[in-house]
Amino acid sequence: MSLQPQEVFRKLTQNLETVMRGQSVTIRKLLGAFVSGGHVLLEDYPGTGKTTLAKALARSIGARFKRVQFTPDLLPSDILGVSVFDQRDHAFHFHEGPIFTNVLLADEINRASPRTQSALLEAMAEGQVSVEGTSYRLAELFFVIATQNPVEFRGTYPLPEAQMDRFAVQLSLGYVAPEEEVAILSAQEQRHPIDTLAACVSVDDVLGVRRRASGVRMSDELKRYVVDVVRETRAANGVQLGASPRASLALMKAAQALALSEGREFVIPEDIREMAVPVIAHRMVAEPQARFAGVTTAGIVEEILTKVPLPS
Amino acid sequence: MTPPPLLLGAALLFWGWQIGFLLIALPLAVLIEAARALTWRLELSGTDFHRVTDLSTLLIVVSGVYLFSTTGTARSAGGPRAMTLLFQWLPLLLFPLIASQVYSTVGRVPLTAFFWGLRRQAARDPAAQPGPVDLGYLYFALCILSASAANRRTLDFYAGLCALAGWALWSCRSRRFSPLWWAPLLAVAAIVGYGGHIVLHRLQQAVEQTAFEYIFSLIHRDADPFRAATALGHLGSLKFSDRTVLRVEPRDGLRVPFLLREASYDVYNSPAWVASDATFTALQPEADGETWKFASRQSPGERVTVSAYLNRGRGVLALPGGAFEIDRLAVVSVRRNRLGAVTVEEGLGLVTYTALFAPDGPLDGPAIDADLRVPPQEAPVISRIASELNLGALSPSEKLKIVEAYFRQNFRYSVWKGERARRQTALEEFFLQSRSGHCEYFATATALLLRAAGVPARYAVGFSVQEWSRLEQRWIVRARHAHSWALAYVDGAWRDVDTTPSIWADAERDEASILEPLRDLWSWGGFLFSRWRWSEGQSGVGEYAAWLLIPLVLLLVWRLYSRRVGRGARGTPESLTLAPRPGHDSEFYLIERRLDAAGRGRRPSEPASTWIERIHATELRPIVALHYRYRFDPAGLDAPERAALRTSAEAWLSGHHVHTAAR
């Protein structure tokens, strides 16, 4: 008997909050993206807990978890796997790479070469990998959580726009309030809480919630609202590249997941508004002049949200 | 945002009252406000609005031309007055636009009506059509601004302004506060505004006065007719512009070179000539207001007609020596001094006057002692030359002849001066070494030499008429024809003595720019325009332009009216004609409206849950949850839930009455 969706959300949230203090908003969005079946890109300064959050999520599910530290000399075969010649039976055997897992933490993804980054593309978009002409299916629950930090430029390869579009949401953690930071210190006085973190839900639970999420109802009026918001990003001032229809799709799914997390069987406007910035902003490219003027794509999306009439 | 009822009408009446157009403003106001009572509307397309805007633009241009051509004939500067009048007329001229807005089914004017660029852009890409604008408040503001151009400076104006502003603000005040708060605060703002403007005005006056006193203390100098700086002693070459400054007629009977004098001076103080005791006295015009006589005289003299530009309506007239009367001079004030300088004031931009003159005309006062004085630093050389010429015992006219011959035979014309010995004065150098110079040298030397010989003499500046323009078929005088010469008092009359070699004009002409013909053409065009603009006749083009407009207006009205006349009220926007939204009859909207009336309304694009948190109406949460299911769950509500939404909303409504005045 699998758990109720709301229960799954509650348990996961509880588990994560023991490790990540003061990040309930980000955790909520992360779980929304996770349940909607999308992949997550965490972008923030070093030391804000990106890797910890990813590890905690993987541990909480009791799923297979692999971690790849991206470096400039990382090769696609290091991720996907490689065929090795076996002397005994004189044949090639495929050795699965770390991508054959449930949760993959791609740490500092922007340090790998574009060639390696794009090896992730097929896997993320289609749930399968092709090695030497043979396609291998990935696990049904396959979730990539990638991290990158925005302060370093030397020796990094910024993710191409096409790859950014593969991530359902981009989140940042940010620094927590001083009280929370004190609490973090206290919690880790003896040992890191992640060491004692136990799985609270099963892979089947998660897959069940995912199936339920895709059944969450959404009215045509709200679908139209999603499309209107995404379309506006293509015409907004200071935007070089607007969001794709894939963004509309991701926004709808994320809103469905968020509705489910609150035990609702239908989407309300608030769900869409909450997920709009993390789903849309990272897919857009601002014009250089606008960037220099301090305009961010997140700011543009916020402005669009205040402009497009909200169904109420 | 649409102005509240009657506000535009009131603004129009206020405008009419202030600028004295009440009889025009009344029907306009009625026309604008009648739109609220009438149900028929015109179905105007974007192109129709473009036409109406073009008509308004045309009206403004034609009115501008009309005002500039008619207000100019008043005896004051016309330009600024015309601008002010045009500004006052704007509500009238832009009325077609606002009328087309209120009588159209759309109720707004597309932005493309105002910008050519937008029109072209919209023609290229219909999707990029900018949204329409409501001109209501813009027109309201225009009425008030135009009314302010009447500059009545009465308390009525300020009171009216405050009343109208209060009226406009009333409809968009915050409903959260009682009007009992709102009205006194507005009154306080009005009173503070009134006090503020008085203080600001005083401050400006004080600053202006201080600045004026300071600047005046820096640059206090005599005006032009009292002093003429010469270029005597100036090194290098002199250059003059070829701009046309005077036009002279008649074409025949003029002995060229003909001298037109502006002023004369009697005291030489190197390098300047100064007019001593040169106070001006005002002249009284004859009965027709345009004839000015320096002395009554029966015999008809010769006549010459001069056209000259005035700078801001004032200037010094160029007159022939011996002038005794000026005809057709349309200025308010004419003044003269004893040295024959005549200034005019408050004229138009261009004056054309006829000067009557005779050899013994009374323009110049009689000779006095100052006309015989030779300054001490020049005296040695002057008296030496005078004695060399043996001028002692001759009659004045003989002395004149000898002096003229002396300069003709021994001196050359030149506009270039090289170095001179430091101890010499400029005149010594001229007499003893170079024996060449420009007209100021010749005129000064002649005047001083004549004085040394006992003939009263003065230094005169003006223009030499010598160029016949084939283009204009009249004599023209350029700035480079500026000239100076001496006046000698012989046999009781002042005579022009021009000793400068006559080749001076040729020398100047050689310096002329090759672009001169083009400039002449331009200058002539400017002259013709000015003459038309400043002409005294009332038959300017402006008179006809107003009549020309009538068929244009009729054509436009007919074209607009031949459109289909839509029946019924304004057309409903497209979105409302679609199938009704699910849940549009939710009682939650009644709550929303009630709260809006209380000034706690939901902002556009603010989600309902965020809104009720913001206004601390958390008791509404269950209602919002039901409302959301009703609105956004495709499965909808079942009958008991629908009833629950209704009853809970009604319960809330009955418990929360709006205490502030409902609209």
Notes on the structure:
- The complex is a heterodimer of chains A (312) and B (663).
- By secondary structure, chain A is α/β, with parallel strands linked by helices.
- Chain A has helices at residues 5-19, 24-36, 50-61, 76-80, 114-126, 161-166, 178-187, 203-213, 220-235, 245-261, 269-280, 288-292, 297-307; strands at residues 39-43, 65-69, 81-86, 91-96, 103-107, 128-131, 134-137, 143-148, 167-171, 239-241, 285-286.
- Chain A has 2 domains: 1-73 and 101-198, P-loop containing nucleotide triphosphate hydrolases (Rossmann fold, 3-Layer(aba) Sandwich), CATH 3.40.50; 214-312, Helicase, Ruva Protein, domain 3.
- Helices cover 47% and strands 16% of the residues of chain A.
- In chain A, the strands form 4 sheets. A 5-stranded parallel sheet of chain A has the order 2-5-8-1-9.
- In chain A, helix 1 (5-19) crosses helix 3 (50-61), helix 9 packs across helix 10 (245-261) and helix 9 (220-235) runs parallel beside helix 11.
- The radius of gyration of chain A is 20 Å and the shape is globular.
- Chain B is built from 21 helices and 27 strands.
- In chain B, strand 16 and strand 17 (342-345) form a beta hairpin.
- In chain B, helix 1 (7-19) runs parallel beside helix 7, helix 18 packs parallel to helix 21 (639-655) and helix 20 (621-632) crosses helix 21 (639-655).
- The interface between A and B is medium-sized, with 21 and 18 residues.
